[in-house]
Batch of 3 targets.
Target 1
Amino acid sequence: MLRETYAENTRRALLDTGLRLFTERDYSAVSAEELVRSAGLTRGALYHHFNGKPGLFEAVFEEEERRAAERIDAAISPLTDPIDRADRAVQALLDVCAEHTYRHIVLQQGPIALGWSRWRELDQRHLGGLLLGIVDAALDAGRFRPYPAQLIAAAFYGALTELALNMAEFDDAEQARSQAVSLVADLLRGLAVENGSPSD
């Protein structure tokens, strides 16, 4: 039991240190030596638990993705109307994307550190399924125009990702987020169907 607790504490220390350093700087600027030194551990611990710096980054990346999915799910769970759920999911995702830690680790450094294919695989595992479920529900209820669900989900996630990256360039972050939310709401209205006919 003590051994398991020590192992979990060691793993947690590496994850927390990785989160801090990967948030502060680019992936390439953080060395394995700095990670273990900052965590007060050895290189052996890093390689035992994560097989090195790339594995630690991937674990940190996945924790950020899980937190994002949990926040979006919590935001939409009280709602029953498919369009309201889609709208709230967009707002929640943009809120997450506007935060420095998520934006830097997942959107900016993730594709560089993991490679595009692995980034896409992990991203779809955590957020792709959630968004696709929201789209499927709206289509099943006849509340979206009948485009393929996968295409709708891909279009919105691609748009949201690009919006999030562009929001980082604005001096007024809150204004940029507000405008992004309004823009995506307009896109949603273009897909929405009210009472069996496209909404005006």
Target 2
Amino acid sequence: MSKVRWGVLGLAGAAVAAAGAWSLRGDAPTPGVPTTTVSEVRAGPPADLEQEVRALRAELEALRRNQGRLEQQPHTSPMQPVEGATAKDAEDPGPARDEEVVRAAREQQRQERVVELEAELELAANTEPRDAQWAAPTESLVTQSFQGPDFVGSRLARIECRTHLCTLEVEHDDGDAQAELLTSLLRVKGLRGQAVVRPRNEGGRRTSRVYLSRAGERLPMTLRK
């Protein structure tokens, strides 16, 4: 999934907090530590009972020693082998494998957060009423700006403004034009809200979806700590 570019038009501020990481734990037995089974107490003559009691005490002491060794060992968590990992890597994960798994989990979490934020933006864009006094002149301003030299290599395919938010669909000739889109929008006089750019490259076709907020308004996104 393409990265999201966050921009500020004019003096408005924008911030997005990343979601927290998940931690997986397991109750797998620790290798190398022998297991013990507590014997069942059987009824019998006093001598036999005394022998059983001694055996139980010995097993209890063994359990306590094993518990002490378990508490001293570092905690390990079962991990899913990442794509391309060998069976040996999965059986014997080292520090490098731990870091790779953590990075993969964080990237997955980042992508899920991006999808969640875009869903919030799309919901607002499709449910807001249209304020013609702001929407019409803003659409004209953006349309005229794309005809200028700052947007060479990019074409405005669609723009729709509502009350607090505009959505743009932009097509690009190459990656350079796509990368410069946010910088070009920053130069447009009259746009003083927040901007989020979602670049895409599907089948060699480069496009971007842009969300612009009204001056003094924040984009409708749930910010998290």
Target 3
Amino acid sequence: MNQNSRERVLGRIRRALADAPLPPEPARDYLTAHTPDDPAALLDLLHENLADYRAIVHRATENELPTLVAELLDRHGARTVAVPPGLPAAWLSATTAERRHDSDAVLTPHELDATDAVVTSCALAIAETGTIVLNGGPGQGRRALTLVPDLHICVVRAPDQVVASLPQALPRLDPTRPQTWISGPSATSDIELDRVEGVHGPRRLGVVLVGHGE
């Protein structure tokens, strides 16, 4: 569906709903989170749920981040790393891996397939579900960058990018931006429930929770 067709369909829906009555007010107030509003508790819960989804979780300060990223790339044998537009250069300052910048020229599918890893930031992280949200913002890049390489290292800044729940996350996200919601490495199961990782995205997900400590 091209843009003109999309606008025609949405226009018809808007006109059909123009005279519709407003929805009733909710009968009661609902909790928007089930976790105390405590940054340390949220970070611990996020860590626990990410690990439960088989993500490899690390914690670091800003000063420790470049060395940790280099160690993670080296540990997984990543010799090439995709770099999305807007990723802070300091994050990759300690690695010897070849950097393939998607902002200089869009990496082709063949080039992405030959790239071992990608390092990104994120838009948000949801503690209660262990979910990372990407929306193509600075340091995140287009969706293909985080679906094709075998290893995805995602940096989450705590507590600024950590929310407790889905109801708290949605108001902070722009619904017009492309979003990718990640809960652990890509995985699927066949009819006999044999788990296979890496079919629809990265086989390995590393998450670095970065605090403000020295």
